[in-house]
Design goal:
Blueprint: H1 3-7, H2 14-22, E1 27-28, H3 29-36, H4 40-52, E2 56-62, E3 67-70, E4 82-85, H5 87-95
Antiparallel strand pairs: 1-4, 2-3, 2-4
Length: 96
């Protein structure tokens, strides 16, 4: 991790910590709801903040490639997507 990336680390909320802890492995939105027991609206808002800060990556199934592909933009609807903590997200989690 570069010095610039280290400087981008911010304090995490309790919900964000719970999300990053669960996202050591890829999970769907519904699985993440169940795993974290966070209210759906709070989960949505927290995921958007984590994606904006590049701590979590959203992935969508691509049947042509038979694999998940990373999304560059944060979509309007998060249901139906899968999520995974980024390297920076895991570092932020383990240093919080």
């Amino acid at each position: 991790m570069t010095e610039q990336e280290k400087n981008k680390i911010r304090p995490l909320s309790k919900h964000e910590e719970d999300i990053l802890e669960a996202l050591h492995f890829m999970l769907s939105f519904d699985d993440l709801l169940q795993e974290t027991n966070i209210n759906e609206q709070i989960l949505d808002k927290s995921l958007r903040a984590l994606m904006r800060d590049e701590l979590v990556q959203a992935l969508k199934w691509n049947s042509e490639k038979n694999d998940f592909i990373a999304l560059d933009l944060i979509p309007d609807e998060l249901r139906g997507l899968h999520f995974l903590a980024t390297k920076h997200g895991l570092f932020s989690y383990h240093t919080s």
